[in-house]
Design brief:
about 625 residues; mainly alpha; two-stranded antiparallel ribbon; 28 helices; elongated
């Protein structure tokens, strides 16, 4: 490699790293978002101590948050050890991972194609495309960028193996693949991707070189690389083998795919995976076809992006599914016809279709129709198709280097502006959900979360109509009723909050959640002065989660110390009495009487304690 080319590669890497970091630098000022961030960081107490043996064991055994991804848990634990619960550090880790992915993607494409210009442009599109904002700006989505890092490293290891196949290199490939699976199971499609790379650009399939037909000038169209029309060659040559032999060498990796799929199903089946009764096969197929088309549409017109796209169920118009199906079929036919002269189209198209399979909704997880974050890896295939195709077209039209650079610069600048705008929506929960509601006006989740965001900022009255509407739209969701109850309490509508808490309790089967709502009911009854109901509520809370008695006492003791009042000390005394701590309960009642000697309930409870002690 000549010195000038080496300098150009180094400058390209630096430019990609610096420009991507600058574009996303504002995320360091963003807060955590109470939308899965609480499960992954803020409320996940076991990770707060940082990396230790207990966390290591837990990360491999946990199906927490309906996922099995131990490496992701360990990365969050490391962040907690380094940065505590300061969001800036956690956001910067996401950014660093994205920058690494951008640079590694450029270097991988360069190594296997020799095309600096085209490889750079694919990596730049990946770096600045608005669809990738969700993965970078959302702390809880660490798993996507982390899994892609090991996915790309595994591709690099496969390149080394393909140059000189041996057991040591195959084991390195396998280890990196396992790390990717341990970050997020979406990389389960790696064996399929390796076969695509064998077709192009590695050209490892013996005898398939005959598929390429030279163009009128005697050149292979998929070999013309770079912004200029001068041909380049891959940095290395790769060994060839029969197709059956190449399939066979991927089989050991498929065993790990099966294991990862099994672990994922076990982690998600109880809560996240939806039944065929909820989402029939026909509905899933229709949504999958439409989602494939919508991801492509948003690739070329990336506006009105949302965090959550509600699943349309069986209400998706037939004509939309039909148009999407026709478009996908037409694109597939076009790609197939170009298989001899433009192999990159086949690899790019099947990369997109294949990697998207686990998340396109055939196995329905959650209630979303699609998610921008799912496109993080699949869109690389589309970028390769577009960049290599555009460069070939420019070659055929003899378009000069300056015009190509100018066009690429304009496209990247426009995408960067749209991305900067999209990043700004993540600066607060209010901005995020207000934007989501603007994009998807009927989204019950956006309505609810916008209400929660208003409530957290002390705007309880403004939040109330959103939370009431959310509870009406999702009447069977205990969280919506619980959030509405919290807001009603803050609006001093205590009597109205009681039935909402009771509804939330009746709708949930999770003991910790029930216990939390019973504790909240006890606080409401305490404010109303109904101490019999306070006692009853705590009895129910301790009945469903007796192991939480110590935590409940600790939390209420701290709360009373921060805001002392006679009724609150009575509430504390009741809880202490329910947990058998009679002497401490007596002290609490006595403290209540010191603050309010006329509080008859405290006197009555003290008298009852004295009678019980005789």
């Amino acid at each position: 490699m000549d010195r000038r080319r080496t300098h150009l590669i180094v400058v390209s890497c630096l430019f990609l790293a610096i420009s991507t970091s600058a574009l996303y630098s504002s995320v360091a000022r963003h807060p955590f978002i109470d939308f899965d961030d609480q499960y992954y960081v803020t409320n996940n107490a076991i990770l707060h101590a940082g990396l230790n043996w207990k966390v290591f064991i837990w990360s491999f055994n946990a199906g927490y948050a309906q996922n099995w991804h131990p490496l992701t848990w360990l990365s969050h634990a490391l962040d907690c050890q380094l940065y505590g619960l300061h969001p800036a550090g956690h956001h910067l880790t996401n950014l660093v991972l994205h920058v690494l992915n951008v640079v590694i993607l450029f270097l991988l494409l360069l190594q296997v194609t020799g095309a600096i210009g085209r490889s750079f442009l694919v990596a730049a599109l990946f770096a600045v495309h608005p669809l990738n904002v969700e993965t970078v700006a959302w702390v809880a989505e660490r798993k996507s960028s982390l899994s892609m890092l090991f996915f790309l490293l595994a591709l690099g290891a496969y390149g080394c193996y393909a140059r000189n196949p041996n057991l040591k290199r195959y084991l390195a490939l396998t280890a990196l693949f396992l790390l990717g699976l341990a970050a997020k199971p979406m990389v389960i499609t790696l064996p399929f991707v390796l076969l695509l790379l064998d077709f192009w650009p590695l050209k490892r399939i013996q005898g398939w070189d005959k598929l390429s037909v030279p163009n009128r000038k005697g050149r292979q169209p998929d070999e013309k690389v770079g912004f200029k029309r001068s041909a380049s060659k891959p940095e290395f040559s790769f060994t060839q083998a029969s197709f059956s032999r190449l399939v066979l060498e991927k089989l050991p990796l498929l065993a790990f795919c099966a294991g990862s799929a099994a672990l994922t199903i076990v982690a998600q089946r109880a809560v996240a995976i939806r039944s065929l009764e909820s989402f029939p096969i026909s509905v899933r197929l229709e949504n999958a076809i439409y989602a494939y088309a919508m991801y492509l549409w948003k690739t070329f017109w990336p506006t009105r992006l949302a965090v959550y796209y509600p699943h349309p169920g069986n209400t998706l118009p037939v004509w939309r599914v039909g148009v999407a199906a026709l478009f996908l079929a037409a694109a597939s036919v076009l790609v197939w016809r170009q298989r001899r002269t433009r192999r990159y189209l086949v690899t790019g198209w099947l990369w997109y279709l294949g990697i998207m399979v686990p998340v396109v909704g055939l196995v329905q997880v959650g209630d979303q129709a699609r998610a921008d974050r799912y496109a993080y890896i699949p869109l690389i295939g589309i970028f390769v198709m577009v960049v290599w195709g555009a460069a070939d077209w420019a070659d055929s039209k003899h378009i000069g280097f300056r015009w190509r650079v100018a066009t690429a610069t304009i496209i990247l600048a426009v995408l960067s502006l749209v991305t900067a705008r999209q990043i700004s929506h993540w600066r607060s929960e209010y901005d995020l959900w207000a934007h989501d509601l603007e994009v998807v006006p009927g989204s019950a989740l956006a309505i609810s979360n916008l209400g929660d965001a208003l409530n957290k900022t002390g705007r309880a009255e403004e939040a109330l109509p959103f939370l009431e509407k959310s509870a009406r739209l999702l009447p069977a969701d205990p969280v919506r009723h619980g959030n509405l109850a919290v807001d009603l309490v803050q609006c001093n509508r205590l009597q109205d909050a009681i039935p909402e808490y009771e509804t939330a309790i009746s709708l949930t089967a999770e003991a910790p959640v029930q216990s939390h709502y019973y504790e909240s009911l006890a606080a409401v009854y305490d404010a109303l002065g109904d101490y019999a109901k306070v006692r009853s509520s705590y009895q129910q809370a301790l009945k469903v989660t007796p192991q939480r008695s110590t935590d409940m006492v600790r939390w209420l003791t701290q709360s009373v110390a921060a805001q002392p009042s006679a009724p609150r000390y009575v509430e504390l005394g009741i809880l202490l009495q329910q947990t058998g701590k009679l002497s401490e309960a007596r002290a609490a009642y006595e403290q209540a009487l010191k603050l309010d000697p006329k509080l008859t309930q405290a006197t009555e409870y003290l008298h009852a304690l004295a009678q019980d002690g005789k």
